Amino acid sequence: MSAAISPALPAQSEGSKAVFVTVSVMLATIMQALDTTIANVALPHMQGSMLATQDQISWVLTSYIVAAAIFMPLTGFLTARLGRKRVFMWSVVGFTVASMLCGAAQSLDQIVIFRMLQGVFGACLVPLSQSVLLDTYPPEKHGSAMAMWGVGVMVGPILGPSLGGWLTEYYNWRWVFYINLPFGLLAWFGLAAFVSETPIDRTKRFDLMGFAMLSLGIGALQMMLDRGESLDWFASREVVIEAMLVGLGFYLFIAHIFTHKHPFIEPGMFRDRNFSVGLIFIFVVGVILLATMALLPPFMQNLMGYPVIDVGYILAPRGLGTMAAMMTVGRLSGRVDARYMILAGLLLTSFALWEMTRFTPEVSSWEIIWTGITQGAGLGFLFVPLSTIAFSTLSPHYRNEGTALFSLMRNIGSSIGISLVITYLSQRTQINHAAFADYIHPFSQPLQQAVEAGVYSLNSVQGLATLNMQVTREALTLAYLQDFRLMMFVTLSAIPLLLLLKSPKRQIARVEVID
């Protein structure tokens, strides 16, 4: 009897270890993913506490985003030289300590510096968590592993504003950062106990030139995207200089990695077609993920009159749609072609955005909720199979660098998406206002009827201001709908990329035949 049971014990032990590894990694992922959006809601309260201007307080977000973007590509080098487990654990410690310092900050300078430290240590968390899970589970279970990992990556930014609003409303903005302490402690103990260390490559050299040029390009791009709208884009000398630095940095980086013996990022990974196409896809996902979250809260607050806390509650179910879709994808993984699931995700997301183009300031809460759930489900169907198929044929040798680039492209997509929709919103509002104003003249019959009914007065400054306010409101409403339509077209434009992806099963079969 004992002989029959004993072979199963190692399998059970490995299964239990995988569960604990997954939980530990998920805690680190959720902690970092939450911080990408949780502080946004608390910014006005920080601004009052720090006696800062609107432009100054925005550095609380900018410093974190820029630091994380610059240091994320370092993940591959650090794990090769120091070991993945060691880098992961120190990143969790640094991120948690920096979070505590942010919560205790007493001045604007302090919180900006501590947020920068958060970005430096948090840069490795998401790519390392993905890499650990891919190595923990066998290839046939990568879909399920990516589903669990995706819950933290995708749901974190969605639930961030809701949790941040609740903590700020009922406690204090400082708890937006203090909440990371339990996550950090549990993640650290789990990583220390259950995650295995990877081999260390002492021969790996640090390519300072490659890192410097990539950092210059990424940092300048993030600064340009963050400050472009407030500075009127290329009408500003600062934005023009930043754009030139973006071009120079990326050009020198690309030229360098193809000519250097030991480049900072090995160009060989881009020969894998699934991975290269996956990077483009995840860029589009990044655009959609946070751009919608940048539009809906101001739409609901400014046009519909919702308080901040209610906005958080109404947007929270979007995360339920994402979680349900990811769990479904985890079960379908291996049975259904990943490309079909990606197509379903793109169509669901496009349908939700199309429905949002019909919103009005009188739209019901339920309509916002169900379109949010639909869009969240679409993103869930997109993210998990995309993460699986992008790494299905990539050599494990490139896995740490590949996951870092994958996360970097998603973050850059999010930054560009937010800047794109905010700029487009501003431009369309002005264009719509000018178009609507053409219909406002003394001979307009609807206007005459409104004046006769006492709705408007054309004989006083206050009456004209009220009329202009109404025109502006209608122009802004239409601009939001045009933004949703733009995002729908962006989503649909990604569908042809599916033709470039190879089925993982076919690829594996082809390799087996060759062997």
Please describe what this structure looks like:
The chain is an all-alpha fold and 515 residues long. It has three domains: 15-202, Growth Hormone, Chain: A; 207-263; 278-515, Up-down Bundle (Growth Hormone, Chain: A). 77% of the residues lie in helices and 0% in strands. The protein has 23 helices and no strands. The protein has helices at 2-5, 8-34, 38-50, 54-57, 59-71, 75-82, 84-104, 108-122, 125-136, 142-170, 175-178, 180-194, 208-227, 237-257, 273-303, 308-315, 317-332, 338-356, 365-392, 399-437, 445-452, 461-493, 504-514. It is globular, with a radius of gyration of 25 Å. The protein starts with a helix and ends with a helix. The relative contact order is 0.11.
Largest sheet: none
The level of helicity is over 70%
User: pLDDT below 50 for ≥5 consecutive residues: which ranges?
Assistant: 1-12, 506-515
CATH superfamily of the largest domain: MFS general substrate transporter like domains
General form: globular
Query: Any guess at the CATH architecture of the largest domain?
Result: Up-down Bundle
What is the CA-atom radius of gyration, in angstroms?
25 Å
- Total strand segments: 0
Number of helices: 23
CATH topology of the largest domain: Growth Hormone, Chain: A
Mean pLDDT reading: 81
N-to-C terminal Cα separation, in Å?
40 Å
Structural class: mainly alpha
The arrangement of helices and strands along the chain is: HHHHHHHHHHHHHHHHHHHHHHH
CATH class category label of the largest domain: Mainly Alpha
Count of discrete structural domains: 3
Q: What oligomeric arrangement do these chains adopt?
A: single chain
Strand coverage percent: under 5%
